[in-house]
Amino acid sequence: MDIEMWIRALKAARSGADVSQEGLAALIKWSPSTVAAIETGRRRPTMEFAVAADQALGTGGLLASLIKKDEERSGPTSFEPWPGYEQRANRLCNFEPCLVPGLLQTEEYARAVFSAGGLYNSDRVEELVSFRMSRQRLFHRDDAPECVFVIDESALQRRVGGPAVMDRQLGHLLESAELPQVRLHILPLEVGAHPSMGGGFALAQLPGDDRLLCLDNAARGQIADYPEWISWVQRKWERLLAESLGASASIEVINKLRVTS
What we know:
Layout: H1 3-16, H2 21-28, H3 32-39, H4 47-57, H5 62-73, H6 82-88, E1 91-96, H7 107-115, H8 122-135, E2 146-152, H9 153-157, H10 163-177, E3 182-187, E4 201-206, E5 210-215, E6 222-224, H11 227-243, H12 247-257
Parallel strand pairs: 1-2, 2-3
Antiparallel strand pairs: 1-4, 4-5, 5-6
C-alpha cells in the first residue's frame, strides 16, 4: 500500500471535518500517540483504525477501502503489520492454546498448519510458510527482544503434520529454549480451566514504553492499543504465567512427549 497516499487521505479527511489529531483520538477511542504515529508513518494503519476513522470523519469508507484493495493484491496479511512491531519490540509475551507459536515453528510444522483443510493452494501455502519463517530472524539480532512464551500442553499433544514432524518440532522447541533471550513455559493440562481459553494473544513492549496487543481470531490477527484491552490481557498473561510450569519442568514435559531423544 502507498502509505504516503493513505496518510494524505487521512489528513485531508481530518482537515475537512475540522478535527485535530487529539480530537480524532478521542472520537475513535485510540491513543493520541497512535494517531500521531500513523500520521507520521511510524506505524502502519490497521483495518480497525481505518474503519473507526472513516466513521468518525464521514469519509464514506474511503480509508478502509484503500487498505482492503491493498490486502486483496498483496501477500499474507493476517499478522501485518505485526512482524514490524515484533522487530521493534524490547519484549514479547505470547500465549498459544492450540498450536506452537509462529516464532517457534519449524518450516514443516508451519507447512502442515497452512495446508490443513485445503484452504490454500500450494503456492499460497509456500508464501505463508516463507512469511512465517522470516519473522524468526529477530532471534538473530544483536539486540533481540526478550521473548516469553506460554504454550498449553494440549498444543504439544496434537500431532500436527504427523508423529515425525511433531517430534522434530518438539526438538526445535528444546533448542529454542536454550536461546538466551527465550523463556519457554508449558501450561499443564492439570490446570484445567484458565483465563484465556477463548484464544491466543501476543503483547509487545515497544521503545518509549508503548505497548501493543495482537489477538488471534478465525479471520485475522487484530492489533490494538486500547489501554483497557491491554490492561485486561496483561492480567490474563500474569495469571497464565503464574499457573505455568517453570523452565526446567517445561523442558521435562517436552522431552516426555518426544518419540526420540
